[in-house]
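Appendix B. Raw example, untouched.
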Amino acid sequence: EVQLVESGGGLVQPGGSLRLSCAASGFTFSRSAMSWVRQAPGKGLEWVSSIYSSSTNTNYADSVKGRFTISRDNAKNTVYLQMNSLKPEDTGVYYCNVAVRGYGYWGQGTQVTVSS
């Protein structure tokens, strides 16, 4: 059974930092591309970042480029999202996502709130 468990969200002031984690199980993590997707209050899903089996291959949405860094630890089956210089518009629920055998799996999400 594929499971994704996000953690690390919270309340932070503008300009602050948070590090999200997503612990994965039930599939071959080291061979799988992993993504972070977020949903702002009252809005649709927005792709944030992806990392491929090679940790050097990463992509970012323009809205977070230069501020967020995605990484993975294949020994721990965990993907991370380091978020720096946070803005109020980064507020939302952040989800971890993976496609396994053509089916998309999601975690329960972790809330990030950027507010003074």
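End of appendix B.
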